[in-house]
Specification:
The protein is built from 2 helices and 3 strands. The chain is an alpha+beta fold. A hairpin with a 4-residue loop joins strand 2 and strand 3. The model has no long low-confidence stretch (mean pLDDT about 80).
């Protein structure tokens, strides 16, 4: 079985590639320890990226993601506070 390399891809793209290849997967989500969702809600947009992929015994892939937070920027280039 050919397993696609999804490391460092956004989660949505990684899932699309795995599903296109007919591979089952599990996702574990992590986030930076200093960034709690309630502290940054509405101020930044998180994007999940794959930071680890591992082939399990049952021909299933386990992927671990991390949330990367970026500040929203208005059209005039000023960051939302």
């Amino acid at each position: 079985m050919l397993i696609p390399d999804v490391l460092a891809l956004p989660l949505s793209e990684a899932i699309a590639r795995l599903e296109a290849a007919g591979i089952q997967y599990t996702v574990t989500v992590s986030q930076p320890p200093r960034q709690r969702a309630e502290d940054i809600e509405g101020r930044v947009v998180p994007t999940e990226y794959v930071v680890r992929q591992q082939l399990l015994d049952n021909d299933k892939i386990a992927i671990v993601t991390v949330k990367r937070y970026r500040k929203e920027v208005l059209e005039d280039g000023i960051c939302n506070q």
